[in-house]
Design a protein that fits this description.
transmembrane, about 0% strand, 11 helices, about 75% helix, membrane, about 250 residues, mainly alpha, transmembrane helix, two-stranded antiparallel ribbon
Length: about 250
């Protein structure tokens, strides 16, 4: 635990020096997006599932922001700490175990995701977009979404040598997930094969759970099934990350 805390502290110290660069993407942009789409477009859309479009889209934007933040924090900085800064090599010589490096990194990302989500949730409450007393549970949901996204992407970043792979990740994974995981419209409107792909995404499970918490409705699947899918993504990704970190440090 001591080494994990030290790794976490290192990431927090780095973030303390760079936090201004993330304010817009983590806090301001989601709120502006929610106001523009939820209020502007919502005036034309009307209601979905018996609630206004603003209230319907809020949990989707919340989960999507957590998903994108987790991916963003798991790409360039991870590869850079291996290839350019070589801080993981320094940790390995300290010695810090590989599992402690991964755990410290993932805990840092969870803190980033939950803090951003808490601010976002507070702002949306001022818009009157939260319809259920269970809304604070959405913070636990976005933590799961963040872990399910960050763990496999961290593993992937530890295996690549060039940042061009991240452009492919953003273009063919992150953006399609944000567009077709029920954030902006029900996945039931998609063709059958596309619905299957949407259900494979951790973001869809996060959107369904967040919407259940903020609106007080039942999700598409039982709650335990959504949670189990997110935990499988997180566990498999963490195991892959530990393996990838170990191989990279031994090479």
């Amino acid at each position: 635990m001591g080494a994990t805390a030290a790794v976490l502290e290192r990431h927090l110290v780095m973030y303390r020096r760079l936090w201004r660069g993330s304010v817009f993407s983590s806090f301001v942009l989601p709120v502006l997006f929610l106001a523009g789409i939820g209020l502007g477009v919502g005036g034309y859309v009307g209601e979905i599932g018996g609630v206004g479009y603003l209230a319907w889209i809020t949990p989707g934007v919340l989960a999507s922001t957590a998903f994108q933040t987790a991916i963003g924090e798991s790409t360039y900085s991870v590869m850079g700490d291996f290839k350019w800064v070589r801080s993981y090599h320094a940790m390995y010589a300290a010695p810090v175990r590989v599992g402690e490096m991964v755990a410290g990194r993932l805990v840092y990302i969870l803190l980033r995701v939950v803090v951003a989500a808490a601010v976002f949730l507070g702002v949306t409450a001022l818009f009157g977009a939260l319809r259920s007393p269970w809304a604070p549970l959405s913070l636990a949901v976005v933590a799961l979404v963040g872990l399910a996204a960050a763990a496999p992407v961290t593993a992937f970043a530890a295996t690549v040598e060039h940042d061009s792979y991240f452009a492919l990740l953003f273009r063919f994974v992150m953006i399609p997930s944000a567009l077709f995981s029920g954030v902006f419209f029900p996945v039931e409107q998609l063709p059958g094969p596309a619905r299957v792909l949407a259900c494979l995404s951790p973001l869809w499970h996060g959107v369904e759970l967040s919407r259940a918490a903020t609106l007080g409705v039942f999700p598409a699947w039982p709650v335990w099934a959504h949670v189990a899918c997110l935990l499988v993504w997180a566990a498999a990704g963490t195991a892959w990350a530990v393996s990838a970190f170990g191989r990279r440090l031994r090479d």
